[in-house]
Amino acid sequence: MKLSRGQMGRRLLGLAVAGVALVAGGSAYAELGQPAPWEWTLQASGSPVMDNITWFHNFLFWLIAVITLFVLALLIIVVVKFNAKSNPVPSRTTHNTLIEVAWTLIPVLILVGIAVPSFRLLFLELDVPKADLTIKATGNQWNWTYAYPDDKIEYTSIMLNEDDRAKLASPPPRLLGVDHSLVVPVNKIVRVQTTGADVIHSFAVPAFGIKIDSIPGRLNETWFKATKEGIYYGQCSELCGKDHAFMPIVVKVVSDQVYDDWKKCVQSNKDDCIDQPQGGKSAKQSARGDGTAKS
Ligand SMILES: [Cu+2]
Questions:
Q1: Which helix (H) or strand (E) holds 210?
Q2: Ligand 1 mean position to 166 CA, how many Å?
Q3: Which of 201, 195, 277, 274 is nearest to 241 (CA)?
Q4: CA atoms of 125 and 211, how far apart (whole Å)
Q5: The pLDDT of residue 1 is above 90
Q6: How far is the CA of 190 from the centre of ligand 1 (A)?
Q7: Using DSSP, how many helices (H) and how many strands (E) does the chain show?
């Protein structure tokens, strides 16, 4: 098939439009708190720490882009202007004080410019502010046990199998749904303490910008403040054995009222609270449903 130049141009244009649509469509799929198909950026941020990480990532990206382009331009100049053909008699210059001072000083200034926001971010992550609530996440082979020590709540969170997931009205993403999720109130500082019961695991939720090793015999600590209500997915991020890929983390961020209702629901041993996958109902509805079922 022979194409005229106009036809070819139109086809190329069509291809370009399709490409842009694909990329734009991909990012349009992006949902807060979970990965998206064709995602090429960091997950959307759901906490101040992640806001900072995203900013720092973008800052470094553009800095590196400028440096790389600058070095590339220098290389091209050298290749074109100073090859043996176009510059048969090379200069024998060996020192240039100004350039030597510049190529020492400018990289130092760039590194200092990186170090300042880098340390600021590090301290933001490490210094746990006064917490409103503490949760303890214990990594087991292969699931998580969550405890709310101040409220005497403790339960284990296990991944939903494909059959159970298919039964749900709005199924969670594949391999990310669990039977009991972690529930926390919105805009509250949550201190996360984590340890391992058997081997090293790692508690990670990308949208909150947290990833911390759960090590047997040690209690590691981090924190997050979820700024938007919703469901946030994470995974164990340390190779911990054969089912490492099947111990997801689900955090439900809810209003204070719903959180209090959930606490009461769990403390009274009801079995239809909002930490469970049929959730989405308010805890009140769940409690009512349970009351009739149990009486
Ligand atoms: Cu693990």
A1: strand 210-214
A2: 25
A3: 201
A4: 10
A5: no
A6: 21
A7: 6, 10
